[in-house]
Amino acid sequence: MPLRLITAGESHGPGLTCLVEGLPAGLQLDQERLNRDLARRQLGHGRGGRMKIETDRAFVTAGVRHGRTLGGPIALQIANRDYANWEERMNPWPVTAEIPEVHLPRPGHADLVGVWKYGLTDVRDILERASARETTARVAGGALCREFLAALGVEVRSHVVQIGTVYAPAATGPLAVDDFDAVDDNPVRCLDAEAGRLMVEHINVQRKANESIGGVFEVVAYGLVPGLGSHVSWETRLDGRIAAAICSIQAVKGAALGDGWDLAARPGSLAHDEILFSEERGYHRETNRSGGLEGGMTTGEPLIVRGAMKPLPTLTQPLRSVDISTREPAQALRERTDSCTVPAAGVVAEAMLAFVLAEAYREKFGGDHIDDVRDAVAHYRERIGWKAR
């Protein structure tokens, strides 16, 4: 069965829903780990007042019994506590109060094109679903995928490497899973304390100037077997599927695998990862410029992907726009917002990468029960002589 992840819900509606279909039966879940990822999505210096209202927790309503998956669709619900302040404006059913429409689309948001596309007149009918609040449901579903991957020895981590014009120094060597143990303790989820301090200062300066700020996050997956994805058709190439998943995150405008954009300027001898063999290590590489992907397939090295996030389109000093009811010049909608969400976007990207990788494992190894999947992975590793990394 193919793996599917569907979300539903609006930013200020009653709540968010996630449906995950295709995970095997018998997978042990941990409620606290599930909710921990939701709490991690709310981290990061530069968040707005909404994070003081919401305390996100996922409630399982289907597909799990006594902490184990049953093999059917899993349904998760996350309540929007802020709905109490929006009940008249966002009630699913008609209300007696007169609710004014919003006619001030924001540059950089889905507002204007959305009302054109769907034949609507109220920008709120678009912005509520287009909001990054939707990623709460993705993180909940991604947490289920992470549990599946963890059962197969795969771990996914992330960190922030750039905010605005502030860059973290390049790592002196490959990052290991343990290097991420304290990343969430940093206010911007940066592995370099001094760079993190400068990032916080930069956010503060931009916020005082009524600006929002973007940046770059990096996600790394460890413990993957070679051969996930395929070279045989464009839609099966895993790098394309990962790029689509990362760029589907609100405000993300670019994705890079491995050394990504830097490879374009290098000669071939400095762009590829030479193949070595030893009796002790088997086939291996001394570099990972490709980010663990060749020919649309995993190589077994850590999978590395970066996402470039633009500044958020809701500004405390709004940009110029047009009132769509009068077509007169106006300022764009001003709504409560964050000034920087790059740290949170890294957590969302973990969830999206976990989904794509879980989907690839389900495609390759099948299995109705998690033990069937483990057995199939073990047999494959034995067949190709793959040594544990």
Please tell me about this protein's structure:
One of its GO terms (cellular component) is cytosol. This protein is α+β, with helices and mostly antiparallel strands. The chain has a single domain, classed as Chorismate synthase, AroC fold. It is built from 10 helices and 17 strands. It has helices at residues 31-41, 50-53, 87-90, 111-118, 124-130, 135-150, 193-208, 238-247, 342-365, 370-384; strands at residues 4-9, 15-21, 59-62, 64-65, 68-69, 74-79, 155-163, 166-167, 215-222, 252-257, 276-278, 282-284, 293-294, 297-298, 303-309, 320-322, 329-331. It has a 5-stranded antiparallel β-sheet. A 4-stranded antiparallel β-sheet has the order 1-2-6-3, covered by helices on one side. Strand 11 and strand 12 form a beta hairpin. Helix 8 (238-247) runs antiparallel to helix 9. The longest helix has 24 residues, at 342-365. It is globular. The chain starts with a strand and ends in a 5-residue tail after the last helix. The model has no long low-confidence stretch (mean pLDDT 95).
What is this entry, summarized?
With 389 residues, the protein is α+β, with helices and mostly antiparallel strands. It has helices spanning 31-41, 50-53, 87-90, 111-118, 124-130, 135-150, 193-208, 238-247, 342-365, 370-384; strands at residues 4-9, 15-21, 59-62, 64-65, 68-69, 74-79, 155-163, 166-167, 215-222, 252-257, 276-278, 282-284, 293-294, 297-298, 303-309, 320-322, 329-331.
